[in-house]
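Look over this today:
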Amino acid sequence: MNRRTRFSLPLIALAGIVIAWGGRPVKAAPGQTAAAGAPGQGTQTQPATSGSPAQAPQGQPATSDPPAKPAQEQPATARPAPGQAAAGQQPPQVPFRAGVELVSLNVTVTDGTQKYITDLTQDDFNVFEDGVKQDVTFFNKTNLPIALALLLDTSASMESKLPTAQEAAIGFARKLRSHQDLAEIIDFDSRVIVLQNFTNSVAELEQAIHKTSAGGSTSLYNAIYIALKDLKKIIAKNTEEIRRQAIIVLSDGEDTSSLLPFEEVLDLAKRSETAIYSIGLRTPDGPGTTTKGFKEAEFVLRQFSQETGGRAFFPNQLADLANVYGQIADELSSQYTVGYTSRNPKRDGSWRRIVVRVGRPNLIARTKLGYFAPTAH
């Protein structure tokens, strides 16, 4: 496989982050984003409007927003389960909107052996916001469809590991339900490239994963930013299109070339409804696990996962990757959705800490650590 030509990221103020989909990377002119066409024939399109809910048709690339300061957003909101739409409503014509006062949580419950517990009822859950117990008003343990972004580090240090990483990622893609789940493939090194837009075609996902090749530095924060923005465009038009959202990111070292700072991307992640699953490789031929750079990378990956209700993995062997991806797939299919209306009426935009406990002994519930309160308009 030929190594792609790579370009350094231009300054955000001049051009934004350049994203190329499939084929040969195309450099966007200032004020434009690159879109994929036939190989070597990228066409220019206008940048997407920030926050636009439009979703690109399957098989066609979507433009991603250029990096900007994340705006204050509403907290995660609970959504009615399939089949609970109002009588007489015509879902295809009436946009689906969740109540802005409801807080929605995706909750994973395990026992002491890390086995997923899937037989709990609404009464088993106790939710606390800033120490105050809340009334659970929404509950769903249906295995909802998933929309996820699969991020692969293709920096130079990944060259010897990439074939194994590709096969592990393909194994994960094959676990997705072809008629329900959606996924996109993002390759990041010095640049961030969306190799495959959201699709439910396993064949297209596999083809995109095989396109990855190693070289360049690491733009981890830029990649997560773009994935969060892409997932925000997945809008449920009716109850049948409600999806849990996740990012799965594989990397073997610290961020070395992102223009966006860690704090800004973490803030955006905390304002999203997306769980981030991190995989940090600790292989013998990679960066030393005792180095300052790797310790910083491990801290960053743990923070992204803990704050959003995901999970961080740090396998010591490449051979463990397939098992790690398998655990993530199992978790995504074993979660509960729990919703409540906050007892705190203040609309001050403050951070509110969340704790979920389960009444059954010896079980541990995991979800995002909190959310930002709504603000007065």
The helical segments are 12-15, 162-173, 202-210, 220-232, 262-270, 292-308, 321-332.
